[in-house]
Amino acid sequence: MRKYEKKYNIIDNSLFAMFANVGYRKEIEKFEKLYFKALKRYLELSNGVPS
């Protein structure tokens, strides 16, 4: 069964990555994995890092 993230979580993660000067999709994925705990403080990430 697939778990779906709320759209604003995906958008917010991308915005945080852009603020950190991350440009490409693969880099955004790395950023999200590295800063998961920090992102989880501000976002509701019940299903883990959205892809």
Structure summary:
The protein is an all-alpha fold and 51 residues long.
Could you explain the architecture of this structure?
The chain is mainly α and 51 residues long. The protein has one domain (1-47). It contains three helices and no strands. The chain has helices at residues 7-19, 25-34, 36-42. Helix 1 (7-19) crosses helix 2. The two termini are 16 Å apart. It comes from Leptotrichia wadei. This is Molybdenum cofactor synthesis domain protein.
Alpha carbon gyration radius: 10 Å
Characterize the biggest β-sheet. none
Number of strands: 0
SSE succession:
HHH
- Report the end-to-end length measured between terminal Cα atoms: 16 Å
Please state the overall shape, judged from the principal axes of the Cα atoms: globular
Low-confidence stretches: none
Mean pLDDT: 72
Q: From the helix content, strand content and strand pairing, which structural class follows?
A: mainly alpha
Count of helices? 3
How many domains comprise the coordinates? 1
What percent of the residues sit in helical stretches (DSSP H or I)? 55-70%
Which percent range describes the beta-strand content? under 5%
